[in-house]
Here is the input.
Amino acid sequence: MANKSRSDNNIKRKVAVTLVAAICLILLYFLIWGFSAQNADKSGSLSQRISEAVIDMVNSLTWRNWSDALKAELVAYFEHPIRKLAHFCEYACMGGLVYILWRQWMKRGKRLYALCVIWVFVSASVDEFHQTFVPGRYGSFADVCLDTLGAVCAVFLCIHIDKALT
Here is the structure.
């Protein structure tokens, strides 16, 4: 009787974790799709505002008192890397969520790892294809590769955390 109760609790936990991971994954898809649907001006404006906030924060934390001209130059310099870091992080989150979702029902191993990476690769490819229909935007295979690398890093981290916890 105790084994049946433990088994029922284990299945309930798996279902709950799967449900939470699936909901987070769906919300992440909406977030990514929303960013991708922004036209070039709106997307660039968001990246610039984030770059400005980062430069202002670094300036404040380091007590540098940079001139406005230097801050503008730094914002322009770091806007592209910050945009690419956002790509990497979004898809790293996706890779981690996909791993958590499928790990509930699959054993650790090459099939699970490949499923997670392929899932993110396909998702990133579809997203980049979607961007080709947005004014001023284009699809980039380099972004698909960067997104997939984010997933690989997240899956690698999940593997090590999973092994440490079991």
Summary: The first helix runs from residue 2 to 36.
